[in-house]
Amino acid sequence: MEYRHSYRGPARNVGRRSWRMARAPGLVVALLVAVCVSFVVSASSGAAANRRSSPSSQAWSNEAGIEHLHFRTAPIKVLPGQNSIQMVPIPRNEKPAVDGYIVRMRPDVQYLDGEVPPVNVIHLHHGVWSDARHGPFFFGGEEKTVFHIPRGYGYPYKASDRWTLDQMIHNQRPVPTRVRLVWNLDFIPASTSLARTVKPVIPVWLDVRGGEDYPVFNSASGSGERGAFTYPTDAKNPYGGHTPLNEVRVPFDGTIVGAVGHIHPGGLYDTIELVRPGAALPTGRACRREAVDITDSRSATRCVAATPGSTAHSVRIFRAQAHYYEPAGPVSWDFALTASRPDWRVRVRRGDTLRITTTYASNHISWYENMGIALLFVAPGDRSGVDPFSAAVDWRGVLTHGHLGENNVHGGAPTSIVDVRKLPNGPLTTEVRIKGYTYRPGDLSLLGQPGARVPTVRQGHSLLFVNQDHAGYEWHTITACRVPCNRSTGIAFPLSNAPAATQFDSGQLGIDPMQMGPHSSPATNTMRWRTPSNLPPGTYTYYCRVHPFMRGAFRVVR
Ligand SMILES: [Cu+2]
Average pLDDT of 539-547? Predict the structure, then answer.
């Protein structure tokens, strides 16, 4: 509790424009979880152990002095159906024992037996590691990007640092379980001669809803331009006339040496721009030998021209771009994001502004509670980078991993679930209660029984939904999906793909246990929601975005 208050204050008050904006998504306090930890040091477990790179490589290799550490939390109790955020202090034994530099981190979530849960069952919405000096310095979302800081740089760590972990673990089933968060860390102890060659970097958090505890926005099907919706560019008055939340002022000269991003399914990319009042873009092309993988074991000569930013006097410097392994396209967590190349260096000046925008596919699916976040690592005083207003920089990154096996259950296969279009009209209905993860009346499991009929609503009226499951953690949505919405559940089914004019979504009906107000939690802080009263006659199917096996239907009649 104490930690939460001391942390929230500065972030709230100075977060918007200051350098140390240091904001994790979802800074709601831990409620239910006690985390303790154990750690194991393994000299051979890190991926770096397998790297091949030349002495001139821009990526850290397996040189003497780098330790490969593995940490894990104590078992975390995951409540039935939970989609809540917890914030816990990280104990001393859950971090390196000595001062030094962190140069690589890889996050994951595991069952207690070490298996990685399928993403359609347990989903790591995020884990954000923060320290009290610099704010968030590492995160793991389901994209599971591996953070690499290039050779010669490192994130400075003191054994006395106070760390906190902000975790959001989403249980898509009504059964409790236990998991651990795990993270591999490549670390250079301060006592090594290698440490004397390392320049410290500072993390800079960029977020399209910077400063909010639960920084999300929605993108409607058909919004934006040419099938893509960019936030905040395409949003109507996103910041209410106040200071943009997606910009951070640079307080000193330096060089950005690393960048990673975070998006949700449907996301295409996060774009980072540098704004310098009065500055013009460089003309012509710049050709360089560049790394084409994250370990710098392969390179190619590439020539690039500067790409303008979204406003005058701005230039694109990086894009965290999604590569979807998902066969159905940009609709699931089965993707990886590009991170900056090991040799990517962008020089910034005091007074510049860093800006983030994020882009989601909007051609036939609405996306809810989207995020657009990036974390940059900046070396203060370092002049080695390319000034993007002097010569073109290549904003393309490289992937840090391939398809992950936990993303193998895509869903969308034919099932025996009822096709409600074939059912007759049932009685006029005014209220649907959600109890035991079932919509009553209208759940597709109930409508599959002999003699079942579809609940009806008179045109011009609305249907009231009331969540009667546990208000504190069993949060449900009523979200339109294209009729008949009866295929198998997976990471890519169901989707919010009703025709744009009849797409609806309730938000997560539930009560934030901390009662911290708007933008602090996924819960809407109400248990009730009404369908739009202007739906034309027809049959409607819906699902729960939190527990997508939950499906229901109603019919609007004249
Ligand atoms: Cu639900």
Answer: 98
Instruction: Tell me the residue ranges of DSSP E strands in 45-144.
Output: 67-73, 76-78, 85-90, 100-111, 122-131, 135-140
The chain-wide mean pLDDT, for the chain, equals 89
Does residue 413 lie within any of the structural domains? no
Of the listed ranges 36-40, 317-321, 409-413, the least confidently predicted one is 36-40
CA of 120 to the centre of ligand 1 (A): 14
Give the Cβ contact number of residue 249 at 10 Å: 15
Structure tokens at 281: 């873009």
Confidence check: pLDDT of 48 > 50: no
Q: From CA 211, how far away is CA 205, in angstroms rounded? A: 10
Domain boundary among 340, 375, 407: 407
Answer yes or no: is pLDDT of 412 > 50: yes
Dihedral in degrees, nearest 10, Cα atoms 309, 310, 311, 312: 40
Last residue of a domain, one of 353, 374, 407: 407
Q: What is the mean pLDDT of residues 456-460?
A: 98
The answer to whether position 412 is within a domain reads no
Q: How far is the CA of 435 from the centre of ligand 1 (A)?
A: 10
Determine the distance separating the centroid of ligand 1 and the alpha carbon of 441, expressed in angstroms. Answer: 15
* Domain match, 27 and 84 both: yes
Q: How far is the CA of 83 from the centre of ligand 1 (A)?
A: 10
The number of helix segments (H) and strand segments (E) in the chain equals: 2, 36
Q: Tens digit of pLDDT for each residue in 107-122?
A: 999 999 999 999 999 9
Backbone angles phi, psi at 402, to 5 degrees: -100, -160
- pTM equals 0.90
